[in-house]
Amino acid sequence: MTEHQTENNSQNNKDWYLFYGDGQDHDIDSQKKMIKEKMKSPPPWRKFLEIEGIDKLKEAINLDDSENKNKKIEEITKNSEELKKIYDQWQKIQKLANSPENERGREKGKRFRVSSQPTAANDDDSEDNPKITVLDAVNAAILLRRPLLVTGNPGSGKTSLAYAIAHELKLGTVLSWPITSRTTLQDGLYAYDAIARLQDYQLITDPEKKKLPDIGNYITLGPLGTAFLPSLYPRVLLIDEIDKSDINLPNDLLHLFEEGKFSIPELVRWADTSQPKTSTIEANKTVKVRTEDASIEDKATIKAGRVHCSEFPIIIMTSNGERDFPPAFVRRCLRVRMPDPDPEYLKNIIASHFDGDSYEETKKATDKLIEDFRNKEATERATDQLLNAIYMRNNLNPESFTEDLQELLFKSLSDTDEQ
To answer: Model pTM?
Structure first.
Protein backbone atom coordinates (compact mmCIF):
# COMPACT_ATOMS: atom_id res chain seq x y z
CA MET A 1 0.00 0.00 0.00
CA THR A 2 1.44 3.39 -0.98
CA GLU A 3 1.79 6.33 1.41
CA HIS A 4 -0.88 8.21 -0.57
CA GLN A 5 -3.32 5.30 -0.33
CA THR A 6 -2.69 4.96 3.40
CA GLU A 7 -3.40 8.67 3.89
CA ASN A 8 -6.64 8.45 1.91
CA ASN A 9 -7.80 5.36 3.81
CA SER A 10 -7.03 7.03 7.13
CA GLN A 11 -9.01 10.09 6.06
CA ASN A 12 -11.99 7.97 4.99
CA ASN A 13 -11.95 6.07 8.28
CA LYS A 14 -12.19 9.23 10.37
CA ASP A 15 -15.97 9.34 10.10
CA TRP A 16 -16.16 6.76 12.89
CA TYR A 17 -13.40 8.21 15.06
CA LEU A 18 -14.04 9.58 18.53
CA PHE A 19 -10.34 10.20 19.16
CA TYR A 20 -8.04 11.93 16.65
CA GLY A 21 -4.79 12.12 18.63
CA ASP A 22 -3.82 15.58 17.35
CA GLY A 23 -4.00 17.48 20.65
CA GLN A 24 -6.66 19.83 19.25
CA ASP A 25 -9.88 20.96 20.89
CA HIS A 26 -12.38 19.70 18.37
CA ASP A 27 -15.90 21.12 18.16
CA ILE A 28 -17.11 20.16 21.62
CA ASP A 29 -20.80 20.23 20.68
CA SER A 30 -20.23 17.97 17.68
CA GLN A 31 -17.97 15.75 19.71
CA LYS A 32 -20.53 15.36 22.48
CA LYS A 33 -23.17 14.44 19.93
CA MET A 34 -20.80 11.89 18.41
CA ILE A 35 -20.02 10.40 21.80
CA LYS A 36 -23.73 10.31 22.67
CA GLU A 37 -24.67 8.52 19.46
CA LYS A 38 -21.68 6.21 19.04
CA MET A 39 -21.14 5.40 22.70
CA LYS A 40 -24.84 4.93 23.48
CA SER A 41 -25.23 1.43 22.06
CA PRO A 42 -22.41 -0.96 22.94
CA PRO A 43 -22.27 -4.44 21.41
CA PRO A 44 -24.99 -6.58 23.04
CA TRP A 45 -22.34 -8.75 24.67
CA ARG A 46 -20.62 -5.68 26.23
CA LYS A 47 -23.57 -4.17 28.09
CA PHE A 48 -23.08 -3.60 31.80
CA LEU A 49 -25.08 -2.03 34.66
CA GLU A 50 -28.08 -0.12 33.29
CA ILE A 51 -29.03 2.91 35.36
CA GLU A 52 -32.56 4.19 34.79
CA GLY A 53 -32.62 7.74 33.47
CA ILE A 54 -28.92 8.07 32.69
CA ASP A 55 -29.51 8.40 28.93
CA LYS A 56 -31.91 11.29 29.55
CA LEU A 57 -29.30 12.90 31.80
CA LYS A 58 -26.68 12.67 29.03
CA GLU A 59 -29.13 14.18 26.53
CA ALA A 60 -29.76 17.07 28.92
CA ILE A 61 -26.01 17.65 29.37
CA ASN A 62 -25.57 17.83 25.59
CA LEU A 63 -28.23 20.53 25.10
CA ASP A 64 -26.94 23.74 23.50
CA ASP A 65 -29.20 26.08 25.50
CA SER A 66 -27.46 26.38 28.89
CA GLU A 67 -30.58 27.66 30.69
CA ASN A 68 -32.72 24.82 29.38
CA LYS A 69 -29.88 22.37 30.03
CA ASN A 70 -29.58 23.31 33.71
CA LYS A 71 -33.34 23.10 34.13
CA LYS A 72 -33.48 19.63 32.56
CA ILE A 73 -30.56 18.37 34.65
CA GLU A 74 -32.19 19.63 37.83
CA GLU A 75 -35.51 17.93 36.95
CA ILE A 76 -33.81 14.60 36.23
CA THR A 77 -31.47 14.52 39.24
CA LYS A 78 -33.98 15.70 41.83
CA ASN A 79 -36.05 12.56 41.29
CA SER A 80 -33.09 10.18 41.52
CA GLU A 81 -30.51 10.27 44.28
CA GLU A 82 -28.32 7.86 42.32
CA LEU A 83 -28.29 10.06 39.21
CA LYS A 84 -27.58 13.13 41.32
CA LYS A 85 -24.55 11.43 42.90
CA ILE A 86 -23.25 10.31 39.51
CA TYR A 87 -23.73 13.79 38.01
CA ASP A 88 -22.13 15.59 40.97
CA GLN A 89 -19.21 13.16 40.96
CA TRP A 90 -18.64 13.69 37.24
CA GLN A 91 -18.66 17.46 37.67
CA LYS A 92 -15.99 17.15 40.37
CA ILE A 93 -13.88 14.86 38.20
CA GLN A 94 -14.03 17.46 35.41
CA LYS A 95 -13.07 20.20 37.86
CA LEU A 96 -10.14 18.11 39.09
CA ALA A 97 -8.99 17.56 35.50
CA ASN A 98 -8.81 21.33 34.97
CA SER A 99 -7.17 22.09 38.32
CA PRO A 100 -3.48 23.04 38.87
CA GLU A 101 -3.03 19.65 40.53
CA ASN A 102 -3.55 17.93 37.17
CA GLU A 103 -1.44 20.35 35.13
CA ARG A 104 1.27 17.78 34.39
CA GLY A 105 -1.24 15.19 33.17
CA ARG A 106 -3.08 17.83 31.16
CA GLU A 107 0.14 18.95 29.46
CA LYS A 108 1.04 15.34 28.65
CA GLY A 109 -2.25 14.89 26.84
CA LYS A 110 -2.10 18.25 25.10
CA ARG A 111 1.43 17.81 23.74
CA PHE A 112 1.23 14.19 22.67
CA ARG A 113 0.68 13.42 19.00
CA VAL A 114 -0.43 10.04 17.69
CA SER A 115 1.45 8.92 14.61
CA SER A 116 -0.64 8.30 11.49
CA GLN A 117 1.87 5.67 10.32
CA PRO A 118 0.41 2.19 9.81
CA THR A 119 1.78 -0.28 12.33
CA ALA A 120 1.47 -3.96 13.14
CA ALA A 121 -1.91 -5.02 14.53
CA ASN A 122 -0.04 -7.07 17.14
CA ASP A 123 3.51 -7.71 18.29
CA ASP A 124 4.51 -9.49 15.08
CA ASP A 125 5.86 -6.64 12.94
CA SER A 126 6.56 -8.78 9.88
CA GLU A 127 5.72 -8.01 6.27
CA ASP A 128 2.87 -10.54 6.27
CA ASN A 129 1.20 -9.06 9.35
CA PRO A 130 -1.73 -6.68 8.67
CA LYS A 131 -1.03 -2.99 9.28
CA ILE A 132 -3.37 -0.53 10.96
CA THR A 133 -2.97 2.90 12.53
CA VAL A 134 -2.84 3.43 16.29
CA LEU A 135 -5.91 5.65 15.88
CA ASP A 136 -7.87 2.77 14.37
CA ALA A 137 -6.94 0.56 17.32
CA VAL A 138 -7.82 3.18 19.95
CA ASN A 139 -11.19 4.01 18.43
CA ALA A 140 -12.08 0.35 17.92
CA ALA A 141 -11.24 -0.35 21.58
CA ILE A 142 -13.46 2.54 22.70
CA LEU A 143 -16.44 1.48 20.59
CA LEU A 144 -16.12 -2.23 21.44
CA ARG A 145 -15.54 -1.61 25.16
CA ARG A 146 -12.33 -3.64 25.08
CA PRO A 147 -8.95 -3.02 26.76
CA LEU A 148 -6.12 -1.97 24.43
CA LEU A 149 -2.72 -3.63 24.86
CA VAL A 150 -0.07 -1.27 23.50
CA THR A 151 3.48 -2.46 22.83
CA GLY A 152 6.47 -0.62 21.41
CA ASN A 153 9.97 0.56 22.14
CA PRO A 154 10.62 2.50 25.37
CA GLY A 155 9.82 6.16 24.87
CA SER A 156 7.50 5.58 21.90
CA GLY A 157 4.56 7.24 23.70
CA LYS A 158 2.63 4.25 25.06
CA THR A 159 1.96 5.88 28.43
CA SER A 160 1.21 9.33 27.01
CA LEU A 161 -1.50 7.82 24.80
CA ALA A 162 -3.82 7.43 27.82
CA TYR A 163 -3.36 11.10 28.76
CA ALA A 164 -4.04 12.17 25.18
CA ILE A 165 -7.34 10.25 25.16
CA ALA A 166 -8.46 11.72 28.49
CA HIS A 167 -7.54 15.25 27.41
CA GLU A 168 -9.10 15.19 23.95
CA LEU A 169 -12.34 13.45 24.93
CA LYS A 170 -12.68 15.47 28.16
CA LEU A 171 -12.93 12.33 30.30
CA GLY A 172 -11.31 13.72 33.44
CA THR A 173 -8.07 12.67 35.07
CA VAL A 174 -6.23 9.48 34.14
CA LEU A 175 -6.35 6.70 36.73
CA SER A 176 -2.83 5.24 36.68
CA TRP A 177 -1.91 1.78 37.98
CA PRO A 178 1.86 1.10 37.68
CA ILE A 179 2.67 -2.62 37.73
CA THR A 180 5.58 -4.38 39.45
CA SER A 181 6.44 -8.05 39.93
CA ARG A 182 4.70 -7.94 43.35
CA THR A 183 1.44 -6.32 42.17
CA THR A 184 -1.75 -8.27 42.80
CA LEU A 185 -5.30 -7.77 41.55
CA GLN A 186 -6.43 -6.55 44.97
CA ASP A 187 -3.76 -3.81 44.91
CA GLY A 188 -5.58 -2.28 41.96
CA LEU A 189 -9.09 -2.87 43.28
CA TYR A 190 -8.98 -1.74 46.91
CA ALA A 191 -7.06 -1.63 50.19
CA TYR A 192 -8.53 -2.47 53.60
CA ASP A 193 -6.67 -1.36 56.74
CA ALA A 194 -8.06 -3.82 59.28
CA ILE A 195 -5.25 -3.12 61.78
CA ALA A 196 -6.04 0.59 61.92
CA ARG A 197 -9.71 -0.19 62.47
CA LEU A 198 -8.88 -2.53 65.35
CA GLN A 199 -6.52 0.02 66.90
CA ASP A 200 -9.18 2.72 66.73
CA TYR A 201 -11.65 0.32 68.36
CA GLN A 202 -9.23 -0.34 71.22
CA LEU A 203 -8.85 3.39 71.83
CA ILE A 204 -12.58 3.72 72.65
CA THR A 205 -12.82 3.84 76.44
CA ASP A 206 -16.54 4.48 76.93
CA PRO A 207 -18.24 1.02 77.22
CA GLU A 208 -21.49 2.41 75.82
CA LYS A 209 -19.70 3.52 72.64
CA LYS A 210 -17.63 0.36 72.33
CA LYS A 211 -18.34 -0.77 68.77
CA LEU A 212 -16.23 -1.16 65.66
CA PRO A 213 -15.78 2.11 63.74
CA ASP A 214 -17.43 2.55 60.33
CA ILE A 215 -15.71 0.08 58.01
CA GLY A 216 -15.89 2.53 55.11
CA ASN A 217 -13.28 4.76 56.76
CA TYR A 218 -10.72 1.99 56.34
CA ILE A 219 -11.32 1.01 52.72
CA THR A 220 -9.88 2.89 49.74
CA LEU A 221 -10.57 1.94 46.14
CA GLY A 222 -7.47 1.68 43.98
CA PRO A 223 -7.18 2.98 40.41
CA LEU A 224 -8.66 -0.22 38.98
CA GLY A 225 -11.57 -0.26 41.44
CA THR A 226 -12.26 3.45 40.94
CA ALA A 227 -12.38 3.02 37.15
CA PHE A 228 -15.22 0.48 37.48
CA LEU A 229 -17.49 2.64 39.63
CA PRO A 230 -20.78 3.62 37.94
CA SER A 231 -20.15 6.87 36.06
CA LEU A 232 -21.67 9.20 33.50
CA TYR A 233 -18.93 8.59 30.94
CA PRO A 234 -16.04 6.10 30.93
CA ARG A 235 -12.90 6.83 32.93
CA VAL A 236 -9.47 6.41 31.35
CA LEU A 237 -7.38 3.76 33.11
CA LEU A 238 -3.66 3.32 32.45
CA ILE A 239 -2.23 -0.08 33.46
CA ASP A 240 1.46 0.64 32.98
CA GLU A 241 4.03 -2.05 32.12
CA ILE A 242 1.76 -5.03 32.63
CA ASP A 243 4.49 -7.29 31.24
CA LYS A 244 6.35 -6.80 34.54
CA SER A 245 3.51 -8.41 36.50
CA ASP A 246 3.42 -11.76 38.23
CA ILE A 247 2.44 -14.53 35.84
CA ASN A 248 -1.03 -14.82 37.44
CA LEU A 249 -2.16 -11.18 37.17
CA PRO A 250 -3.35 -11.24 33.52
CA ASN A 251 -5.52 -14.29 34.27
CA ASP A 252 -6.81 -12.64 37.44
CA LEU A 253 -8.05 -9.71 35.34
CA LEU A 254 -10.14 -11.91 33.03
CA HIS A 255 -13.39 -11.90 35.03
CA LEU A 256 -13.24 -8.17 35.66
CA PHE A 257 -12.64 -7.37 31.99
CA GLU A 258 -15.44 -9.70 30.91
CA GLU A 259 -18.12 -8.89 33.49
CA GLY A 260 -17.23 -5.32 34.46
CA LYS A 261 -17.81 -5.95 38.17
CA PHE A 262 -16.09 -7.13 41.34
CA SER A 263 -16.84 -7.72 45.03
CA ILE A 264 -15.15 -6.49 48.18
CA PRO A 265 -15.39 -9.53 50.52
CA GLU A 266 -15.07 -7.45 53.70
CA LEU A 267 -18.08 -5.34 52.68
CA VAL A 268 -20.07 -8.35 51.47
CA ARG A 269 -19.68 -9.94 54.93
CA TRP A 270 -20.52 -6.63 56.58
CA ALA A 271 -23.70 -6.28 54.50
CA ASP A 272 -24.74 -9.85 55.31
CA THR A 273 -24.18 -9.61 59.07
CA SER A 274 -24.83 -5.98 60.01
CA GLN A 275 -28.42 -5.76 58.83
CA PRO A 276 -31.58 -7.85 59.44
CA LYS A 277 -32.31 -10.11 56.47
CA THR A 278 -35.46 -8.34 55.30
CA SER A 279 -36.08 -6.79 51.91
CA THR A 280 -37.36 -3.52 53.40
CA ILE A 281 -33.85 -2.41 54.46
CA GLU A 282 -31.98 -3.71 51.39
CA ALA A 283 -31.26 -0.15 50.20
CA ASN A 284 -29.54 0.61 53.51
CA LYS A 285 -26.77 -1.93 52.99
CA THR A 286 -24.43 0.75 51.69
CA VAL A 287 -21.11 2.11 52.82
CA LYS A 288 -19.07 5.09 51.66
CA VAL A 289 -15.40 4.57 50.80
CA ARG A 290 -12.51 6.69 49.56
CA THR A 291 -11.42 6.44 45.94
CA GLU A 292 -8.24 6.97 43.92
CA ASP A 293 -9.48 10.53 43.27
CA ALA A 294 -8.01 11.63 46.58
CA SER A 295 -8.62 15.34 45.96
CA ILE A 296 -12.38 14.77 45.69
CA GLU A 297 -13.76 14.82 49.21
CA ASP A 298 -17.01 13.01 48.38
CA LYS A 299 -16.76 9.27 48.91
CA ALA A 300 -18.12 6.58 46.62
CA THR A 301 -21.19 4.65 47.75
CA ILE A 302 -20.86 0.84 47.63
CA LYS A 303 -24.00 -1.24 47.92
CA ALA A 304 -23.83 -4.74 49.45
CA GLY A 305 -20.07 -4.82 48.88
CA ARG A 306 -20.31 -5.00 45.09
CA VAL A 307 -19.08 -2.63 42.36
CA HIS A 308 -20.53 -2.81 38.83
CA CYS A 309 -19.58 -0.38 36.06
CA SER A 310 -22.19 1.35 33.93
CA GLU A 311 -19.60 2.56 31.40
CA PHE A 312 -16.69 0.20 30.70
CA PRO A 313 -13.50 2.22 31.25
CA ILE A 314 -11.10 3.03 28.42
CA ILE A 315 -8.21 0.79 29.45
CA ILE A 316 -4.73 1.33 28.01
CA MET A 317 -2.27 -1.38 29.01
CA THR A 318 1.36 -0.80 28.09
CA SER A 319 3.99 -3.46 27.52
CA ASN A 320 7.64 -3.37 26.49
CA GLY A 321 7.28 -6.85 25.00
CA GLU A 322 9.26 -8.58 27.75
CA ARG A 323 6.85 -11.53 27.95
CA ASP A 324 3.94 -13.27 26.27
CA PHE A 325 0.42 -13.27 27.68
CA PRO A 326 -2.07 -16.14 28.05
CA PRO A 327 -4.37 -16.63 25.01
CA ALA A 328 -7.49 -16.15 27.16
CA PHE A 329 -6.20 -12.73 28.23
CA VAL A 330 -5.14 -11.71 24.73
CA ARG A 331 -8.56 -12.69 23.37
CA ARG A 332 -10.22 -10.06 25.54
CA CYS A 333 -7.96 -7.25 24.31
CA LEU A 334 -7.21 -5.38 21.13
CA ARG A 335 -3.47 -5.14 20.43
CA VAL A 336 -1.37 -2.58 18.61
CA ARG A 337 2.30 -1.67 18.39
CA MET A 338 3.42 1.96 18.54
CA PRO A 339 5.44 2.63 15.37
CA ASP A 340 8.94 4.03 15.42
CA PRO A 341 8.61 7.74 14.58
CA ASP A 342 9.16 9.08 11.06
CA PRO A 343 10.52 12.64 10.42
CA GLU A 344 7.09 14.26 10.02
CA TYR A 345 5.81 12.75 13.24
CA LEU A 346 8.93 13.94 15.08
CA LYS A 347 8.45 17.46 13.71
CA ASN A 348 4.86 17.49 15.00
CA ILE A 349 6.03 16.35 18.43
CA ILE A 350 8.77 19.01 18.52
CA ALA A 351 6.37 21.75 17.42
CA SER A 352 3.97 20.79 20.22
CA HIS A 353 6.73 21.06 22.85
CA PHE A 354 8.52 24.21 21.73
CA ASP A 355 7.36 27.70 20.88
CA GLY A 356 6.47 27.97 17.19
CA ASP A 357 8.71 30.98 16.50
CA SER A 358 11.77 29.48 18.18
CA TYR A 359 11.16 26.25 16.29
CA GLU A 360 11.08 28.05 12.93
CA GLU A 361 14.27 29.97 13.78
CA THR A 362 16.19 26.76 14.43
CA LYS A 363 14.39 24.59 11.88
CA LYS A 364 17.52 23.81 9.87
CA ALA A 365 19.48 22.72 12.93
CA THR A 366 16.47 20.78 14.20
CA ASP A 367 16.13 18.92 10.89
CA LYS A 368 19.80 17.95 11.18
CA LEU A 369 19.24 16.63 14.71
CA ILE A 370 16.22 14.62 13.51
CA GLU A 371 18.36 13.12 10.74
CA ASP A 372 21.11 12.20 13.20
CA PHE A 373 18.56 10.81 15.65
CA ARG A 374 17.02 8.54 13.02
CA ASN A 375 20.32 7.51 11.45
CA LYS A 376 21.83 6.18 14.65
CA GLU A 377 22.67 2.50 14.51
CA ALA A 378 20.90 2.02 17.81
CA THR A 379 17.38 0.68 17.37
CA GLU A 380 16.13 1.56 20.86
CA ARG A 381 15.86 5.26 21.49
CA ALA A 382 13.12 7.46 22.93
CA THR A 383 11.57 10.59 21.51
CA ASP A 384 12.37 12.50 24.69
CA GLN A 385 16.09 11.98 23.94
CA LEU A 386 15.58 14.12 20.83
CA LEU A 387 13.60 16.71 22.83
CA ASN A 388 16.42 16.86 25.40
CA ALA A 389 18.98 17.43 22.65
CA ILE A 390 16.93 20.23 21.06
CA TYR A 391 16.43 21.91 24.43
CA MET A 392 20.15 21.82 25.23
CA ARG A 393 21.14 23.01 21.77
CA ASN A 394 18.74 25.95 22.03
CA ASN A 395 20.03 26.94 25.48
CA LEU A 396 23.80 26.50 25.00
CA ASN A 397 26.33 28.41 22.97
CA PRO A 398 26.75 26.73 19.56
CA GLU A 399 30.32 25.68 20.36
CA SER A 400 29.18 24.09 23.64
CA PHE A 401 26.80 21.66 21.95
CA THR A 402 29.46 19.24 20.79
CA GLU A 403 29.18 15.97 18.91
CA ASP A 404 30.22 14.15 22.09
CA LEU A 405 27.34 15.76 24.01
CA GLN A 406 24.94 14.83 21.22
CA GLU A 407 26.27 11.27 21.29
CA LEU A 408 25.59 11.13 25.05
CA LEU A 409 22.00 12.32 24.58
CA PHE A 410 21.34 9.92 21.69
CA LYS A 411 22.85 6.86 23.38
CA SER A 412 20.86 3.70 22.67
CA LEU A 413 18.62 2.54 25.48
CA SER A 414 19.99 -0.97 24.99
CA ASP A 415 23.65 0.08 25.29
CA THR A 416 25.53 -0.87 28.44
CA ASP A 417 28.45 0.91 30.06
CA GLU A 418 30.57 -2.22 30.18
CA GLN A 419 33.94 -1.99 28.43
So the answer is: 0.85
